Amino acid sequence: MENLAPYAVCEANSRGRLHGEAAPRWRNQFQRDRDRIIHSSAFRRLEYKTQVFVNHEGDMFRTRLTHSLEVAQIARSVARALHINEDLTEAIALAHDLGHTPFGHAGQHALNACLREFGGFEHNLHSLRVVDLLEQRYPAFPGLNLLFETREGILKHCSHQNALQIGALGQRFLSQRQPSLEAQLANVADEIAYNHHDIDDGLRAGLLSLEQLRELTLFRATETDVRARWPQIDAKRLRHTVLREMLNHFVTDLIEQTRARIRDLAPADLAAIHAASEPLVDLSPALRSQHFSLKRLLRIELYEHPQVQHMAQRSQEIVSDLFRRLMDDAACWPDALGEWPRDPTLRARAVADYVAGMTDRYATSEHQRLHPSGVGS
Ligand code: MG
């Protein structure tokens, strides 16, 4: 890693791994984490998990896997421009959604409701549980034994109560310190990525219209500019060009604003990043406001669209039915999960781990197997 800024995370300032391991020979420690994430089962399952559109609705829509790749692409470009740790940023971006349930946010809401009396379910915290515990591939330790900084980046937010229970990783939430720039960046790249690809998918699905998007100042201005340069442009190229230019605008703004904030604070080292009063990786106020308008439009016009809501409703029923059946009926307990835990709290967490790990189609087929007559659905 050449030209790394003094406040970037590097091997010398890393807090290392929970279980000691020999250093890799041909990779750095951060590349090792990225590779462990790519080779995990949870990462492969992202291919069949919903982003907004349920997996079987069309082959062209984003899935959690392609979303994660787009986040990693954006995050890496910005990391390089900022001279921070590109490999760590990539590892965090690829891992950030590993804890997502099937059926996107609908699945998460349903599972959280099922677990209300057992501590709830939060996909972000679950991502950490996947890499710390649920991936079983190494004889010497549970999980992937990732670096502290990769785990810190995965855990974007955390309640006070949860922070008290997760040791060193919870400390920054309790003392209100900032995570590394690499973690901050992966978080913003996630938001920029989904705003743009959800517009693209929404337009392609015919659930969003150009008229609706023209309510956004930035979309309208970019479209006018593109049409002036390419008066004969067809609808498909117009969509791609406007979104590409908007994305570029956001990424450029993010790089310039973050550079300016770093210049103002002049952090000498990583400790100065942690001690800063607010995150340094951020958009300008003008673009932040466009970003919120975009989010609001997507929520109202796409995520709450009756067609998306109809699918979400159905998905919630599938997740809740699966949870209840596995919780209440020992005969349904899969052999792969070992003994049926007698303690309800342990049982609830085991069921949540199992259901959260399912892909959309596996959840659907398990639901059909356990509810052949549609009972409970
Ligand atoms: Mg995401």
Which secondary structure elements does this structure contain, and how are they paired or packed?
Blueprint: H1 29-38, H2 41-45, H3 64-82, H4 86-95, H5 104-114, H6 123-134, H7 148-154, H8 160-163, H9 171-174, H10 181-205, H11 210-213, H12 217-229, H13 235-265, H14 270-275, H15 285-303, H16 306-328, H17 344-357, H18 360-370
The chain binds magnesium ion (MG).
Residues 67, 96-97, 190 line the site of magnesium ion.
End-to-end C-alpha gap? 53 Å
Characterize the overall form.
globular
Q: What is the C-level CATH assignment?
A: Mainly Alpha
Count of alpha and pi helical runs: 18
Q: Please, what is the average pLDDT?
A: 94
Q: Output the helix-strand order.
A: HHHHHHHHHHHHHHHHHH
| Number of individual domains | 1
* Extended strand count: 0
CATH topology (level 3) name = Hypothetical protein af1432
Rg result = 22 Å
What would CATH call the architecture? Answer: Orthogonal Bundle
Bound molecule types: magnesium ion
Q: Report the portion of residues in β strands.
A: under 5%
Major sheet attributes: none
**Sheet/helix structural class:** mainly alpha
Helix content: 55-70%
CATH superfamily: Hypothetical protein af1432
Unreliable stretches, pLDDT < 50, 5 or more residues?
Answer: none
Task: Please give the oligomerization state of what you see.
Answer: single chain
Brief write-up:
The protein is an all-alpha fold. The chain is 60% helix and 0% strand.
Defining traits:
18 helices, Hypothetical protein af1432, mainly alpha, 377 residues
